[in-house]
UniProtKB/TrEMBL annotation:
Keywords: Signal
Origin superkingdom: Bacteria
Signal peptide bounds: 1-22
Signal is among the record's keywords: yes
Keyword Metal-binding tagged: no
Name listed for the protein in its UniProt record: DUF3035 domain-containing protein
Length: 173
């Protein structure tokens, strides 16, 4: 009887220890590296060298500027998806109206830095209670909960208005 009780106690302790290993902290929310090693995503391979058909038709060298073998991942992705990288330099005429409407009150050139600073300040104010900070509990979703959209309520609102909506997964219980 004592052996059976001892085994049961050991199993219960093992289960408790295993349950303690779990975490609600999604690692995707923490995108900063905590290691001192190299950033493997910053390494971009160069294109292979190519010999031009006519060496006399080459443009003059431009010291300090890029060349044809330099990696340009954004332009490469655009080309791979069937787009034209040069189209990024100007606004297409079909989009001019929306750009005009979006910039009617002006454009802030440092909007990304401003929003990042405001978001950091907001998250610091919503940093969690003492024990949450002590045990590094993720309060990200609770901090932004008042700003989140109830997707199912919006789906029902659109359906009541007669807007055709795609099928949606059922609301989780």
């Amino acid at each position: 009887m004592q052996v059976r009780l001892g085994k049961s106690a050991m199993c219960a302790l093992a289960l408790l220890a295993l349950a303690a290993c779990g975490s609600d902290n999604p690692q995707l929310l923490n995108i900063t590296s905590t290691t001192e090693g190299p950033d493997e995503f910053a390494i971009v391979p160069n294109r292979p060298l190519e010999a031009p058909e006519d060496f006399n038709a080459l443009p003059p060298p431009t010291p300090g500027r890029g060349n044809r073998t330099d990696a340009n991942p954004n332009a490469d992705a655009i080309v791979a998806l069937g787009g034209r990288p040069e189209a990024l330099q100007s606004v297409p005429t079909r989009d001019a109206g929306i750009v005009t409407a979006a910039t009617r009150y002006g454009v802030s050139p440092d909007i990304r830095q401003t929003l990042a600073a405001e978001d950091l300040d907001f998250r610091r104010r919503k940093d969690g209670r003492l024990l949450e900070r002590l045990f590094n509990v993720n309060v990200y979703f609770r901090a932004y909960d008042p700003m989140s959209l109830d997707q199912y309520a919006e789906l029902e609102r659109f359906r009541r208005l007669g807007v055709r909506t795609p099928a949606a997964p059922p609301k989780p219980q």
